[in-house]
Specification:
Layout: H1 2-41, H2 43-46, H3 49-78, H4 86-96, H5 107-131, E1 132-135, E2 144-147, H6 150-158, H7 160-189, H8 201-233, H9 240-257, H10 259-262, H11 264-271, H12 273-301, H13 308-319
Antiparallel strand pairs: 1-2
Length: 320
Protein backbone atom coordinates (compact mmCIF):
# COMPACT_ATOMS: atom_id res chain seq x y z
CA UNK A 1 0.00 0.00 0.00
CA UNK A 2 2.81 2.36 0.88
CA UNK A 3 4.61 1.62 -2.37
CA UNK A 4 1.43 2.43 -4.34
CA UNK A 5 1.12 5.78 -2.57
CA UNK A 6 4.79 6.55 -3.24
CA UNK A 7 4.44 5.71 -6.94
CA UNK A 8 1.27 7.81 -7.16
CA UNK A 9 3.04 10.82 -5.68
CA UNK A 10 6.00 10.31 -8.02
CA UNK A 11 3.69 10.12 -11.04
CA UNK A 12 1.82 13.25 -9.95
CA UNK A 13 5.12 15.06 -9.39
CA UNK A 14 6.36 14.05 -12.83
CA UNK A 15 3.12 15.16 -14.54
CA UNK A 16 3.19 18.46 -12.65
CA UNK A 17 6.78 19.12 -13.71
CA UNK A 18 6.12 18.36 -17.37
CA UNK A 19 2.68 19.78 -18.13
CA UNK A 20 2.54 22.54 -15.54
CA UNK A 21 6.14 23.50 -16.15
CA UNK A 22 5.85 23.67 -19.93
CA UNK A 23 2.63 25.70 -19.68
CA UNK A 24 4.22 28.28 -17.38
CA UNK A 25 7.40 28.29 -19.49
CA UNK A 26 5.56 28.82 -22.79
CA UNK A 27 3.30 31.67 -21.69
CA UNK A 28 6.21 33.25 -19.82
CA UNK A 29 8.57 33.33 -22.80
CA UNK A 30 5.88 34.72 -25.13
CA UNK A 31 4.74 37.33 -22.61
CA UNK A 32 8.25 38.47 -21.71
CA UNK A 33 9.20 38.91 -25.38
CA UNK A 34 6.05 40.96 -26.00
CA UNK A 35 6.79 43.06 -22.91
CA UNK A 36 10.27 43.85 -24.20
CA UNK A 37 8.92 44.74 -27.65
CA UNK A 38 6.30 47.12 -26.25
CA UNK A 39 8.50 48.85 -23.66
CA UNK A 40 11.36 49.31 -26.13
CA UNK A 41 9.22 50.42 -29.09
CA UNK A 42 7.29 53.32 -27.53
CA UNK A 43 9.08 56.55 -26.69
CA UNK A 44 6.76 57.16 -23.74
CA UNK A 45 8.15 54.05 -22.06
CA UNK A 46 11.78 54.50 -23.10
CA UNK A 47 11.91 57.79 -21.14
CA UNK A 48 10.89 56.35 -17.75
CA UNK A 49 13.01 54.46 -15.25
CA UNK A 50 10.07 52.29 -14.20
CA UNK A 51 9.55 51.04 -17.76
CA UNK A 52 13.31 50.45 -17.96
CA UNK A 53 13.11 48.28 -14.84
CA UNK A 54 10.17 46.41 -16.38
CA UNK A 55 12.14 45.84 -19.60
CA UNK A 56 15.13 44.49 -17.68
CA UNK A 57 12.78 42.40 -15.54
CA UNK A 58 11.30 40.84 -18.68
CA UNK A 59 14.79 39.92 -19.91
CA UNK A 60 15.61 38.45 -16.48
CA UNK A 61 12.31 36.54 -16.57
CA UNK A 62 13.35 34.87 -19.83
CA UNK A 63 16.70 33.94 -18.27
CA UNK A 64 14.97 32.53 -15.17
CA UNK A 65 12.47 30.54 -17.21
CA UNK A 66 15.12 29.06 -19.52
CA UNK A 67 17.87 28.31 -17.02
CA UNK A 68 15.67 27.81 -13.96
CA UNK A 69 12.33 26.31 -14.93
CA UNK A 70 13.22 24.59 -18.22
CA UNK A 71 16.24 22.81 -16.76
CA UNK A 72 14.12 21.53 -13.88
CA UNK A 73 11.47 20.32 -16.32
CA UNK A 74 14.08 18.39 -18.30
CA UNK A 75 15.80 16.98 -15.21
CA UNK A 76 12.72 16.08 -13.13
CA UNK A 77 10.37 15.29 -16.01
CA UNK A 78 12.63 13.56 -18.55
CA UNK A 79 15.85 12.84 -16.59
CA UNK A 80 17.72 15.06 -19.07
CA UNK A 81 20.43 17.30 -17.61
CA UNK A 82 21.27 20.21 -20.01
CA UNK A 83 24.42 21.12 -18.29
CA UNK A 84 15.03 40.55 -8.77
CA UNK A 85 13.54 43.52 -10.28
CA UNK A 86 9.91 43.66 -9.22
CA UNK A 87 11.08 45.08 -5.90
CA UNK A 88 12.98 47.78 -7.81
CA UNK A 89 9.82 48.69 -9.74
CA UNK A 90 7.73 49.09 -6.58
CA UNK A 91 10.43 51.28 -4.99
CA UNK A 92 10.74 53.32 -8.18
CA UNK A 93 7.00 53.99 -8.35
CA UNK A 94 6.98 55.08 -4.70
CA UNK A 95 9.84 57.51 -5.34
CA UNK A 96 8.16 58.81 -8.49
CA UNK A 97 5.02 59.69 -6.54
CA UNK A 98 6.90 61.39 -3.70
CA UNK A 99 7.91 65.02 -4.08
CA UNK A 100 11.07 64.68 -2.00
CA UNK A 101 12.46 61.67 -3.84
CA UNK A 102 11.06 61.89 -7.38
CA UNK A 103 14.41 63.24 -8.68
CA UNK A 104 15.87 59.76 -8.06
CA UNK A 105 13.65 58.29 -10.80
CA UNK A 106 15.91 58.61 -13.83
CA UNK A 107 17.36 56.24 -16.40
CA UNK A 108 20.98 56.93 -15.48
CA UNK A 109 20.50 55.89 -11.85
CA UNK A 110 18.36 52.93 -12.92
CA UNK A 111 21.12 51.70 -15.26
CA UNK A 112 23.71 51.95 -12.49
CA UNK A 113 21.51 50.09 -10.02
CA UNK A 114 20.90 47.31 -12.55
CA UNK A 115 24.66 46.96 -13.15
CA UNK A 116 25.31 46.85 -9.39
CA UNK A 117 22.57 44.23 -8.92
CA UNK A 118 24.04 42.05 -11.68
CA UNK A 119 27.55 42.27 -10.18
CA UNK A 120 26.33 41.49 -6.65
CA UNK A 121 24.24 38.55 -7.91
CA UNK A 122 27.21 37.21 -9.88
CA UNK A 123 29.56 37.45 -6.89
CA UNK A 124 27.00 35.91 -4.55
CA UNK A 125 26.55 32.97 -6.94
CA UNK A 126 30.26 32.10 -7.24
CA UNK A 127 30.32 29.92 -4.07
CA UNK A 128 27.38 27.92 -5.44
CA UNK A 129 29.55 26.89 -8.40
CA UNK A 130 32.53 26.11 -6.16
CA UNK A 131 30.75 24.16 -3.41
CA UNK A 132 28.03 22.29 -5.33
CA UNK A 133 28.30 18.79 -6.77
CA UNK A 134 26.10 15.86 -7.80
CA UNK A 135 25.19 13.31 -5.12
CA UNK A 136 22.71 10.41 -4.93
CA UNK A 137 20.68 11.03 -1.72
CA UNK A 138 19.96 7.95 0.36
CA UNK A 139 16.29 8.80 0.92
CA UNK A 140 15.30 9.27 -2.72
CA UNK A 141 17.84 7.34 -4.78
CA UNK A 142 17.84 10.12 -7.36
CA UNK A 143 20.91 12.16 -8.22
CA UNK A 144 20.62 15.80 -7.15
CA UNK A 145 22.80 18.81 -6.43
CA UNK A 146 24.23 19.07 -2.93
CA UNK A 147 26.84 21.25 -1.26
CA UNK A 148 30.25 19.85 -0.40
CA UNK A 149 30.89 22.56 2.20
CA UNK A 150 28.79 22.08 5.35
CA UNK A 151 29.14 25.70 6.48
CA UNK A 152 27.97 27.10 3.16
CA UNK A 153 25.18 24.52 3.04
CA UNK A 154 23.85 25.83 6.36
CA UNK A 155 24.19 29.43 5.15
CA UNK A 156 22.43 28.65 1.87
CA UNK A 157 19.50 27.00 3.62
CA UNK A 158 19.18 29.83 6.18
CA UNK A 159 19.70 32.97 4.06
CA UNK A 160 19.09 32.80 0.26
CA UNK A 161 15.88 30.75 0.33
CA UNK A 162 14.06 32.16 3.36
CA UNK A 163 15.48 35.71 3.13
CA UNK A 164 16.47 36.58 -0.47
CA UNK A 165 13.66 34.57 -2.08
CA UNK A 166 11.12 34.97 0.71
CA UNK A 167 10.99 37.56 3.46
CA UNK A 168 13.08 40.34 1.87
CA UNK A 169 11.37 40.65 -1.55
CA UNK A 170 7.93 40.19 0.00
CA UNK A 171 8.63 42.90 2.58
CA UNK A 172 9.99 45.34 0.00
CA UNK A 173 7.14 44.73 -2.44
CA UNK A 174 4.40 45.05 0.17
CA UNK A 175 5.94 48.09 1.90
CA UNK A 176 6.67 50.21 -1.15
CA UNK A 177 3.59 48.96 -2.98
CA UNK A 178 1.37 50.15 -0.14
CA UNK A 179 3.27 53.45 0.10
CA UNK A 180 2.90 54.02 -3.65
CA UNK A 181 -0.82 53.26 -3.42
CA UNK A 182 -1.21 55.71 -0.53
CA UNK A 183 0.63 58.39 -2.52
CA UNK A 184 -1.62 57.81 -5.52
CA UNK A 185 -4.73 58.27 -3.39
CA UNK A 186 -3.26 61.36 -1.74
CA UNK A 187 -2.35 62.95 -5.08
CA UNK A 188 -5.83 62.30 -6.42
CA UNK A 189 -7.37 63.98 -3.38
CA UNK A 190 -5.19 67.09 -3.53
CA UNK A 191 -6.52 70.31 -4.93
CA UNK A 192 -5.24 71.62 -8.26
CA UNK A 193 -3.80 74.76 -6.66
CA UNK A 194 -0.91 72.92 -5.08
CA UNK A 195 2.53 73.19 -6.68
CA UNK A 196 2.56 69.70 -8.04
CA UNK A 197 2.25 68.48 -11.63
CA UNK A 198 -0.70 66.25 -12.31
CA UNK A 199 0.20 62.61 -12.74
CA UNK A 200 0.33 61.78 -16.41
CA UNK A 201 -1.62 58.92 -17.91
CA UNK A 202 1.62 57.05 -18.44
CA UNK A 203 2.55 57.25 -14.76
CA UNK A 204 -0.94 56.19 -13.70
CA UNK A 205 -0.72 53.26 -16.07
CA UNK A 206 2.71 52.14 -14.82
CA UNK A 207 1.68 52.59 -11.20
CA UNK A 208 -1.41 50.41 -11.66
CA UNK A 209 0.56 47.69 -13.46
CA UNK A 210 3.33 47.65 -10.85
CA UNK A 211 0.91 47.56 -7.90
CA UNK A 212 -1.05 44.64 -9.34
CA UNK A 213 2.19 42.81 -10.20
CA UNK A 214 3.32 43.32 -6.60
CA UNK A 215 0.05 41.88 -5.27
CA UNK A 216 0.15 38.86 -7.60
CA UNK A 217 3.86 38.40 -6.88
CA UNK A 218 3.17 38.19 -3.15
CA UNK A 219 0.42 35.62 -3.72
CA UNK A 220 2.52 33.30 -5.92
CA UNK A 221 5.65 33.66 -3.77
CA UNK A 222 4.08 32.86 -0.40
CA UNK A 223 3.51 29.09 -0.96
CA UNK A 224 7.12 28.51 -2.05
CA UNK A 225 8.48 30.66 0.79
CA UNK A 226 6.38 28.79 3.36
CA UNK A 227 7.47 25.45 1.91
CA UNK A 228 11.15 26.41 2.02
CA UNK A 229 10.80 27.55 5.62
CA UNK A 230 9.36 24.23 6.77
CA UNK A 231 11.70 22.25 4.50
CA UNK A 232 14.82 23.85 5.96
CA UNK A 233 13.39 23.41 9.47
CA UNK A 234 12.71 19.69 9.03
CA UNK A 235 15.65 17.51 9.98
CA UNK A 236 14.73 14.31 8.14
CA UNK A 237 11.72 12.62 6.58
CA UNK A 238 10.59 9.48 8.42
CA UNK A 239 9.55 7.33 5.45
CA UNK A 240 9.34 7.12 1.67
CA UNK A 241 5.77 8.45 1.63
CA UNK A 242 6.89 11.63 3.39
CA UNK A 243 9.72 12.02 0.89
CA UNK A 244 7.33 11.59 -2.05
CA UNK A 245 4.84 14.04 -0.52
CA UNK A 246 7.62 16.57 -0.01
CA UNK A 247 8.74 16.24 -3.65
CA UNK A 248 5.17 16.74 -4.87
CA UNK A 249 4.63 19.84 -2.71
CA UNK A 250 8.01 21.18 -3.83
CA UNK A 251 7.07 20.78 -7.50
CA UNK A 252 3.65 22.42 -7.12
CA UNK A 253 4.89 25.39 -5.10
CA UNK A 254 7.87 25.86 -7.44
CA UNK A 255 5.61 25.95 -10.52
CA UNK A 256 3.41 28.52 -8.77
CA UNK A 257 6.51 30.51 -7.80
CA UNK A 258 7.60 30.73 -11.44
CA UNK A 259 4.40 32.66 -12.08
CA UNK A 260 6.52 35.63 -10.96
CA UNK A 261 8.40 35.34 -14.25
CA UNK A 262 5.56 34.34 -16.59
CA UNK A 263 2.55 36.46 -15.58
CA UNK A 264 3.64 40.16 -15.80
CA UNK A 265 2.63 40.62 -19.45
CA UNK A 266 -0.82 39.10 -18.91
CA UNK A 267 -1.30 41.16 -15.74
CA UNK A 268 -0.51 44.31 -17.72
CA UNK A 269 -3.05 43.34 -20.39
CA UNK A 270 -5.76 42.64 -17.81
CA UNK A 271 -5.40 45.77 -15.68
CA UNK A 272 -4.55 48.38 -18.32
CA UNK A 273 -6.79 49.06 -21.35
CA UNK A 274 -4.14 51.52 -22.53
CA UNK A 275 -1.54 48.75 -22.53
CA UNK A 276 -3.80 46.60 -24.70
CA UNK A 277 -4.18 49.45 -27.19
CA UNK A 278 -0.42 49.97 -27.15
CA UNK A 279 0.09 46.25 -27.79
CA UNK A 280 -2.10 46.38 -30.90
CA UNK A 281 -0.45 49.61 -32.05
CA UNK A 282 3.09 48.27 -31.63
CA UNK A 283 2.45 44.91 -33.29
CA UNK A 284 0.21 46.04 -36.16
CA UNK A 285 1.07 49.65 -36.86
CA UNK A 286 4.80 49.62 -36.12
CA UNK A 287 6.37 46.20 -36.56
CA UNK A 288 3.93 44.67 -39.06
CA UNK A 289 4.10 47.75 -41.29
CA UNK A 290 7.89 47.81 -40.92
CA UNK A 291 8.23 44.22 -42.14
CA UNK A 292 5.69 44.77 -44.90
CA UNK A 293 7.66 47.76 -46.18
CA UNK A 294 10.88 45.78 -45.94
CA UNK A 295 9.43 42.86 -47.91
CA UNK A 296 7.93 45.19 -50.54
CA UNK A 297 11.22 47.06 -50.86
CA UNK A 298 13.08 43.80 -51.38
CA UNK A 299 10.62 42.77 -54.07
CA UNK A 300 10.97 46.15 -55.78
CA UNK A 301 14.76 45.86 -55.74
CA UNK A 302 14.77 42.43 -57.34
CA UNK A 303 15.76 42.74 -61.04
CA UNK A 304 14.49 40.04 -63.34
CA UNK A 305 17.25 38.74 -65.66
CA UNK A 306 16.87 39.73 -69.31
CA UNK A 307 17.15 37.26 -72.18
CA UNK A 308 19.85 37.87 -74.88
CA UNK A 309 17.15 38.80 -77.43
CA UNK A 310 15.69 41.44 -75.13
CA UNK A 311 19.15 42.83 -74.46
CA UNK A 312 19.89 43.17 -78.22
CA UNK A 313 16.59 44.97 -78.79
CA UNK A 314 17.35 47.42 -76.01
CA UNK A 315 20.83 48.12 -77.42
CA UNK A 316 19.48 48.64 -80.95
CA UNK A 317 16.84 51.05 -79.72
CA UNK A 318 19.33 53.06 -77.70
CA UNK A 319 21.55 53.37 -80.79
CA UNK A 320 18.92 55.54 -82.49
Amino acid sequence: MASIAVESFKLATNECNIYGGFFVFSIGIIGSILNIIIFSSLKAFRETSTAFYMTVASAVNIFQLVFGLLTRILINGYNIDPTKTLSSMSIDQFLLLTNRWCHLCNLQLASRLIIIAVIVSFLHGIPVILFQDLYPPLDTGQTSCSFTNIGYSIYYSRFPFPILLGILPLTVRITFGVLAFVNVRALHNRQAGLCRKEISERDKQLTTMVLVEVAIGVIVTLPYSIYNYFYTSAATFPDQISVAENQFISSVTRIIFYGNFSLPFYINCCVSPRFRRQLVHVLLHIHLKYWQKKINRRRMNQITPQSPVDANIVLSLTAF
